[in-house]
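Justification of resources, computational component.

The compute hours requested in this renewal are based largely on the per-chain cost of generating structure records like the one below. Each record pairs the submitted sequence with a full structure-token output. That output is archived, and it is also reused by downstream analysis tasks.
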Amino acid sequence: MSSQNQISQQVVESILAQKLAPGERLGEQELAELFGVSRTLVREALMQLQARGFVEVRTRKGWYVVEPSVEEARDAFSARRIIETGILREAGRPLQSVVRKLRQHIAQEQQAIDDADAATRSFLLADFHVCLAECLGQRLLCDVLRDLTARTTLAASLYQSKHDAGQSCAEHAGIVAALEKGQLELARQRMLDHIGSVEAALGSSAPDASSSEKLRAALSPVERPALRRVG
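The structure output for this chain reads:
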């Protein structure tokens, strides 16, 4: 049996994996059956997700994954710039163990790209930013970054981002290469360029809403490789 937090976590991870699309309906009864819990617990989890900005309730229609506006997407990217460059500014030394863990993560990204595993690829590319914060000892910011990255992932899905997964992986590698050399200012600039390139790839308008994805498939756990964090 799942808990409220486990349900919320699975929904967010499915957003990061682009398995749950903006505008997709989340039926309370279907979720209750899927997770083996009461509708009351599901409703509490959805209210928690609503407070975090991931779902909304529509009168007489039910719960839906949010469809962020262009302005909301820009705000999320702006917040990520401030936080992620700040994390890099505060990075200490030595960074060898951090670089090792991040290179493992990038290798997993590349493997998912090579395997054409879209869900794992999307999740890992987004999770790189959370992993970076955790590896650099900024654990209090991990949840904030996870939510912001999920918001920008929704925007990328909704506005049909043209940003290439291989490009994202290469940009991650460039950030880590700068960290390995202790070039923190270069790492910060590469992070700014990376976030900017992802944002610039967004289209200007959203496609018509579609309900083609099945909720059960969308909320299946993401098969992500195990990655040990820096202690």
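The chain has two domains: 4-67, 70-200. The two ends are 30 Å apart (CA to CA).
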